[in-house]
# Entry
Amino acid sequence: MVAKAALETRSRSRVPSPATSVQGRTDSEGEDVAAAEAGIGNLSYFEPGPSSNLDLRRLIIERQAAPDILLSGLVTNEDVSKLFQIYYKWINPVIPILDENIHTPASVLGRCPFLFTVVLAVASRYYEEKPYIHTLAIHIAKTAAANAFLDGWKTVEMCQAYTLMASYMPPARRWDEDRTWFYSGIAFRLAIDLDLGRPPVVKPTDERGEREVLNRLRTYIICYIVDRSFGINLGKPFMVPEVELIRNVNTMFLSSKYQHKGDAYMASLVELYRIMTRFADIANPATEARADSLNEADLIATHKVFAEELAAWETAAATHCAADEASKDTDDRLRMGLLHSVYQYCRLVTFSAGLHQVMKVNKLKEDKIFFAGCLHAGSAVINCVIERILPTGFIRYSPDHVFALSTFATAVLMKCLRPEFAHKLGPVQEDRIIDLVKRLLKCVDMDQNDTDDQSTPRRCYAKFLQQLLTSRMMERESERAASDSIQFPEAPVQVAITPCPPAVQDTKLEEMIPHTHDMPFLTSWEPPTLPDPSNTNPLLAFNETEYMQNFMASFPDQPWFMQ
# Structure
């Protein structure tokens, strides 16, 4: 209401009135003073700024200094092309937030140097020709993120950049140094502030306009998916609201002829996470007062309702994504693998929440639903990762929340091996669970690439799984040894060392203990190593304005983009 009133006042002030010339000069001077004021008193406060016009924004950015990642000489024009190719081949299929048709290297630089820096920094982790540039590129990206937060334009590209940083920043040494939730929170607030989930009133008439609309809507949908994924994984409250676009994603988002191949996959994920949002509102174990109010009958009835909703979603998704399911394209196979894994993960969350409540009221012996459901859904998640995601080759390029699926499933299965569940599991079932986790660990850390440092999510989660498995196996052997000593009390008391399991005996000590000392974690207290001066870009002979113009000229855009 306030914005509408301000805009109406602004439009009325531009209409000439039949006043005297002296009065006209007075009104003009008053308008200039009002325009120079800050805050809501400025008549143009609610009007779109120069960032809303892509062509004008491009001209302004071209006249500014080039981003530090270029001025430092860390990457050359050839490196930029290769890094963008890596990004679109391996990273964008996992988080399809950019459109390759409009996000060329030059157009990304002309839209948002911050996004340009983040794309290069994220892709540099997998740039085998120059693996040494990743550390400094990440440092430059963090600096660009701070500057963009303080002085940057609020644009859809800034939202995309923070979303990528939340997903692909190197792991922190400690939880209190992790910035994932910080970056994602900025991205989500930008998506809400910019109304990215609201389609335009006037429909675009050309390809460029339609792709720009899809770019905004797709960014909001990605933010919604990442928000739900982080919220469920970390037990955090959800931030991105379910606007009309989310409630009617199939009709409002999947109606353009310029859709991405992964748009149907994202729409199916939105529907799945809508079910999990309702489940979290009702049965979230983190909400103690609400969770305690559920009695046994309500718990079973609630689980039955959501189990039926998830089963109905699976049927609808199978029909909706039938073409992708039958495709042999690697990107399609990855998306279908992720879709099946997230579905089984959501089932596991519902079963584990029910098991938590059952154990709280000491009715584990009477339970016939939740424990068996945890075993089935947890095994299904791991099998999906092994059989569907790993064969695509994308596991090396996946962000943290992809590994969180199998990690949570492993943690639940390891919990099911505790002594309090011994009456529900036999030795054969326990062996099957351990063998499944060993198989996952072997597959995840099978490719020992020299260019992959120890701080990649794949290596970090592999070490965590190894620690979890080794700890549980040692506990299991200790329990068996204690059981044997109780079973034969007549045996003389001797000081004995608990034997290690065969799998541990065959494992070298160096492989059991994670090499945390050589993990190059990045923190704000560790200055990056500067590049070799011999690798400095010869284009530094230009001044900053000439550098930007020459660089932009080396990446010509498609003709329709410049029109």
Q: What stands out?
A: The chain has 26 helices and no strands. The two ends are 36 Å apart (CA to CA).
